[in-house]
């Protein structure tokens, strides 16, 4: 039987933590502006530090990898699928929860699923380093989902079912992310792309129903 999430409610950040968040965001915003203006590969960490008026070490403390200065939603992206499964309703399967949340993300034009605008999307597509890092994010997200599914279904050691399910569900999200990028780079307006993506999502998730409609249903 699946357990209810036990994560305590989030507390408002203290002044010190708020200051750290503001510094991190300021560095990321400065870096993104430079990347968009000159290209990811052309900008150095030293230049970012100078523009943000912080020490170079401060930049690397917040962002150990240069790619994460541009892809600064790493934590949200990697944990998104596992979090949705953990928070699914009683009687809801993992597949149903992920489809519901994806369609909600389309409605809000969430950058986590690819709605980042043509300029930013183009910067990623044109950078081998950013493209490679994004692939890593997809892989990490799938692994996190597999771990969550194993916990939610009390899978035995050696049971590959959670990994197989995560591969299918993660693959569906990867395909839909790529479609969002494709439409963005083709110059399609956001509303049109969102409508097409919602239709595509229903079809893609529908393909998975024969194998996953009854898998990882929350019992209580």
Automatic annotation (TrEMBL):
Pfam families xrefs: TetR_N (PF00440)
DNA-binding positions: 44-63
Domain HTH tetR-type: 21-81
Keyword annotations: DNA-binding, Transcription, Transcription regulation
Protein name, per record: TetR family transcriptional regulator
Source species taxonomy: Bacteria, Bacillati, Actinomycetota, Actinomycetes, Kitasatosporales
